[in-house]
Amino acid sequence: MSSDTFGLELSFQLVSDAIKRKDDVLVVLVHWFLTKFGFRCIGVGDDKSLSGNENGSELLPSGWSNSETYSLRYVYGGDLYILRGVRADDTLIFNLLRTSDLNVSNLAVNVGEVVSATTGNVGTMVPSHVSLVERIRKELVEPVTKKVSSEAMTQTPTENPSQGHPSALEHDRYDPLRVPGSGGSGIRGPSGFPHSVDPFNYGRSDLDPLGIGGPGRGGAGGMLFDPFHGPRGMLPPGGLPRGRVPGARFDPVFPPGAGRGGRGGFNPDPDHLPPPGYDDMFM
Fold first, then answer.
1. Where is this region: Disordered (predicted)?
2. Domains of the chain (ranges plus CATH)?
């Protein structure tokens, strides 16, 4: 026998007088694996109460095979487990119930195909005992002994600023799509754009999705840059033409204050929006 089934032969020898049916052979094999796994038997029956003073044993209790059905009580990890075995035609169905949460596992074994005899060594009674032991482990024991915390399964990692993840404030500060001064809440309404960031409100009206905050509608700051339109009522420097940027190089082609060819100076004229390149002294 391999080391994985160490002690199985001894378990059969200890209860050889109580083995009368092939079903008994399977119960002994399941009991052996449970005790090998760490379970301790505390008697027969299906009582789901546990006082905490029970003395568990590696031995099968007296009277374990006196009934057509099997019912054994075990303790493992502070929990009470009940092993039941019921025959259905040629199949012996095992149920292992953890009473604390009523979690149950199942194992169905075809008695005639698995058990060859009720006496002899393990290889004679259960030729495929190695593969059956593996089934007991995977199908009967592990499903009710592996306690997976639902909290650990659903918990999502949280961002830790100390690990390089930007905070919400830092994210807003470096967000290229955030409108400055909007407080990280996206684009404000038509009248909600602050004037403190850009005194000329340059381009603000083009961010108005409703189109009601542009020039002529109570708003300002379209794509036509006008340095003299601002919250402080800036006026053009004396003698400088409309559109001249303060501080920029200025080389007029006619005397300051004379306007364009005597067409009224800064007053609107038919050429207030001339074609591109027409009379452009700044090119």
1. 144-200, 256-283
2. 8-47+68-145 (3.40.1000.30)
